[in-house]
Amino acid sequence: MSSLTGDHDSAHDLAYYEAMPYLLVMESVERQGEWLRRAEYPELPGCVAEAPSAVEALEKLEGERLRLLRQLWDRGASIPVPRPPLCGPRPSRAHPGALP
Known about the structure:
Blueprint: E1 3-4, H1 14-18, E2 25-31, E3 34-40, E4 48-51, H2 54-75, E5 80-81
Antiparallel strand pairs: 1-5, 2-3, 3-4
């Protein structure tokens, strides 16, 4: 679950929240016979964008993310903080035939 900040932490400015690594979900969806790419930050409620291409969806989503964060900041509302990763990076294993 995501945690929420209380009132703005005096140690953090808006740029701090804009740099947070939110989970990104992208999928293909069909709308009236047309396939679109849907990009979403599920930890930021309502932060969704759809477009004919993945690149366009990501560009629109980034604008929506920044708009939403600014809106929350200006209202003094709580800003969702991404949940920590479920596990750390996996150690890489060399292929048995690979050279060191």
